[in-house]
């Protein structure tokens, strides 16, 4: 990963940017990754030890560990004869401290819901169907 | 491998995280694609077929046949949201894909719970004694009330795992889970 980790606030701004870019482009992807932030915080055992004790990873660490969140878009290169433009890959990342996880994910959910506008909305016809189903289901449970 | 229900995916992913908390990672991908020409053709074919069959059905018994949906533009780009839990050491890969906007809130909430697993926070307890998909199978098909409920769960996460689970479960599952905890 090139570059520094962003603060959570800055990360959300950039994430909104990524989604916006994707929207204006009309196609493409946004990748989001989360994993335990182990660099410098957790000492991984040596390879020999890992083989010796395959369950080394399941021991609960004493202290909560931060979580690393990454986001990126896909780069694309210009292709002759199509509308495709060359797009640079943008990579952003942030580290979420354990005590901020809940707050972070609440904002994260909002950001993603706002950003993923291309997904299918619930259409009215389906809603009607569901209501019918629900009625049927509730009638069944009452019986 | 792909899962068909998000609850199932969540359960398996959290098991994977339990087994390999420091190497497993979760990648989610939101992708928008222009349909290929063959996809466009398929859509057009489907639309025409559908219009034909529903009109025939309407003639038979007009009350029970649902109205044809607002036609999807055959050229419209299709978007999907894919969740992937992957552990590079064991090579285990769990996937779930959706194209429904209504599910995003719920899925991110489950990512948040998995994030707590990753952070090794102590209060995370997941009750796997509840049979897989007990309430979960019903939730994807849930009605309009589903979305706001998930929102409440995501915001009220500070109260721990229990209220959120109950919120996503909904209906009959609610009582059962509350009784267990």
Automatic annotation (TrEMBL), chain A:
<dbReference type="GO" id="GO:0006614">
    <property type="term" value="P:SRP-dependent cotranslational protein targeting to membrane"/>
</dbReference>
<dbReference type="GO" id="GO:0005786">
    <property type="term" value="C:signal recognition particle, endoplasmic reticulum targeting"/>
</dbReference>
<comment type="subunit">
    <text>Component of a fungal signal recognition particle (SRP) complex that consists of a 7SL RNA molecule (scR1) and at least six protein subunits: SRP72, SRP68, SRP54, SEC65, SRP21 and SRP14.</text>
</comment>
<protein>
    <recommendedName>
        <fullName>Signal recognition particle subunit SRP14</fullName>
    </recommendedName>
</protein>
<feature type="region of interest" description="Disordered">
    <location>
        <begin position="116"/>
        <end position="143"/>
    </location>
</feature>
<feature type="compositionally biased region" description="Basic residues">
    <location>
        <begin position="119"/>
        <end position="136"/>
    </location>
</feature>
<keyword id="KW-0687">Ribonucleoprotein</keyword>
<keyword id="KW-0694">RNA-binding</keyword>
<dbReference type="GO" id="GO:0030942">
    <property type="term" value="F:endoplasmic reticulum signal peptide binding"/>
</dbReference>
<dbReference type="InterPro" id="IPR009018">
    <property type="entry name" value="Signal_recog_particle_SRP9/14"/>
</dbReference>
<keyword id="KW-0733">Signal recognition particle</keyword>
<keyword id="KW-0963">Cytoplasm</keyword>
<dbReference type="InterPro" id="IPR003210">
    <property type="entry name" value="Signal_recog_particle_SRP14"/>
</dbReference>
<comment type="function">
    <text>Component of the signal recognition particle (SRP) complex, a ribonucleoprotein complex that mediates the cotranslational targeting of secretory and membrane proteins to the endoplasmic reticulum (ER).</text>
</comment>
<dbReference type="GO" id="GO:0008312">
    <property type="term" value="F:7S RNA binding"/>
</dbReference>
<comment type="similarity">
    <text>Belongs to the SRP14 family.</text>
</comment>
<dbReference type="Pfam" id="PF02290">
    <property type="entry name" value="SRP14"/>
</dbReference>
From TrEMBL, chain B:
<dbReference type="InterPro" id="IPR039432">
    <property type="entry name" value="SRP9_dom"/>
</dbReference>
<protein>
    <recommendedName>
        <fullName>SRP9 domain-containing protein</fullName>
    </recommendedName>
</protein>
<dbReference type="GO" id="GO:0006614">
    <property type="term" value="P:SRP-dependent cotranslational protein targeting to membrane"/>
</dbReference>
<feature type="region of interest" description="Disordered">
    <location>
        <begin position="135"/>
        <end position="181"/>
    </location>
</feature>
<dbReference type="Pfam" id="PF05486">
    <property type="entry name" value="SRP9-21"/>
</dbReference>
<feature type="region of interest" description="Disordered">
    <location>
        <begin position="36"/>
        <end position="76"/>
    </location>
</feature>
<feature type="compositionally biased region" description="Basic residues">
    <location>
        <begin position="39"/>
        <end position="52"/>
    </location>
</feature>
<dbReference type="GO" id="GO:0005786">
    <property type="term" value="C:signal recognition particle, endoplasmic reticulum targeting"/>
</dbReference>
<feature type="domain" description="SRP9">
    <location>
        <begin position="4"/>
        <end position="118"/>
    </location>
</feature>
<dbReference type="InterPro" id="IPR039914">
    <property type="entry name" value="SRP9-like"/>
</dbReference>
């Amino acid at each position: 990963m090139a570059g520094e980790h962003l603060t959570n606030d800055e990360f959300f701004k950039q994430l909104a940017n990524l989604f916006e870019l994707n929207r204006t482009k009309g196609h493409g992807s946004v990748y989001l990754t989360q994993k335990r932030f182990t660099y410098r915080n957790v000492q991984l055992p040596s390879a020999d030890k890992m083989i010796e004790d395959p369950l080394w990873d399941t021991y609960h660490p004493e202290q909560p560990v931060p979580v690393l969140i990454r986001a990126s878009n896909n780069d694309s290169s210009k292709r002759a004869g199509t509308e495709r433009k060359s797009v640079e890959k943008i990579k952003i990342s942030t580290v979420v401290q354990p005590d901020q996880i809940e707050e972070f994910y609440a904002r994260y959910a909002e950001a993603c819901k706002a950003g993923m506008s291309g997904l299918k909305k619930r259409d009215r016809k389906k809603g009607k169907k569901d209501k019918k189903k629900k009625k049927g289901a509730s009638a069944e449970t009452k019986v | 491998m792909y899962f068909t229900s998000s609850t199932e995916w969540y359960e398996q992913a959290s098991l994977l995280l339990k087994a390999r908390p420091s190497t497993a990672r979760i990648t989610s991908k939101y992708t928008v694609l222009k349909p290929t020409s063959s996809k466009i053709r398929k859509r057009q074919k489907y639309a025409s077929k559908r219009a034909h069959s529903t009109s025939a059905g309407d003639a038979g018994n007009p009350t029970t046949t649902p109205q044809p949906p607002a036609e999807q533009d055959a050229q419209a780009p299709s978007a999907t949201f894919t969740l992937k839990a992957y552990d590079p050491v064991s090579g285990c890969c769990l996937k779930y894909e959706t194209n429904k906007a209504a599910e995003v809130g719920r899925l991110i909430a489950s990512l948040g719970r998995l994030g707590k697993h990753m952070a090794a926070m102590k209060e995370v307890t997941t009750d796997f004694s509840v049979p897989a998909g007990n309430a979960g199978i019903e939730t994807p098909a849930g009605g309009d009330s589903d979305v706001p409920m998930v929102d409440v769960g995501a915001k009220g996460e500070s109260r721990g795992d229990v209220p959120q689970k109950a919120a996503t479960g909904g209906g009959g599952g609610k009582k059962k889970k509350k009784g267990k905890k």
